[in-house]
């Protein structure tokens, strides 16, 4: 008796995440998208980037992450006194303040979650680029999906920009090299960890039996 793998058996079907309608999957060109006829949600987009491009962007993201954490994101000077702050220094400052639990939340959302996201992306894409499924593929893909809401670099970036604008009237505030790296990293992570990464499920389906 032949056992069927559910992934292969139903791979031609696609379920709307919003209203549970079932559709037959069609192949899409680069900038095309498929929408649910019942609720209008986007079901699938044409693949915009190849695995190789995604891997290259993930490695760039890893380098930018190092820059964003090593170089100061903001430097403040007043009457000859100069102070610079890195992302880690801001988490540390929160830990010594009155709202210590905030340090753990900040550390998780602006350092730990993005770091794990980048590491998992590099791991999965390095194997996918060689045409293989990475060890622990399913767990890694699911972790990546769960991490997405916890990675809040864009919120952090917005907060820093607001702080710079607010403080600029009173002090000499300069955006540091780390802030530029953080800005580029935020855009890259949104690009890489979006729906494009889901293609790995289809690309490596025959190896996941
Ligand atoms: Zn729908």
From TrEMBL:
Keyword annotations from UniProtKB, A to Z: Membrane, Transmembrane, Transmembrane helix
Q: Which organism is it from?
A: Pseudomonas emilianonis
Annotated protein name in UniProt: Paraquat-inducible protein A
- Database matches in InterPro entries: PqiA-like (IPR007498)
Q: Which residues cross the membrane?
A: 54-74, 102-128, 149-171, 177-194
């Amino acid at each position: 008796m032949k056992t069927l793998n559910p992934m292969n058996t139903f791979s031609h079907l696609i379920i709307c995440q919003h209203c549970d309608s079932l559709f037959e999957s069609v192949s899409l060109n680069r900038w095309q998208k498929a929408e649910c006829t019942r609720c209008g949600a986007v079901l699938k987009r044409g693949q915009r980037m190849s695995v190789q491009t995604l891997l290259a962007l993930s490695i760039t993201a890893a380098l930018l992450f190092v820059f964003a954490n090593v170089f100061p994101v903001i430097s403040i000077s007043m009457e000859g006194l100069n102070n610079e702050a890195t992302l880690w220094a801001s988490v540390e400052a929160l830990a010594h303040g009155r709202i210590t639990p905030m340090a753990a939340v900040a550390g998780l959302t602006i350092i730990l979650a993005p770091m794990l996201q980048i590491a998992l992306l590099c791991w999965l894409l390095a194997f996918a680029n060689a045409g293989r499924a990475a060890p622990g593929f399913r767990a890694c893909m699911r972790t990546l999906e769960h991490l997405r809401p916890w990675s809040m670099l864009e919120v952090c970036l917005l907060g820093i920009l607001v702080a710079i604008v607010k403080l600029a009237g009173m002090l000499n505030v300069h955006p540091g090299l780390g802030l530029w790296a953080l800005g580029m990293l935020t855009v890259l992570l949104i690009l890489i960890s979006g729906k494009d990464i889901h293609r790995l499920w289809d690309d490596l389906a025959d190896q996941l039996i």
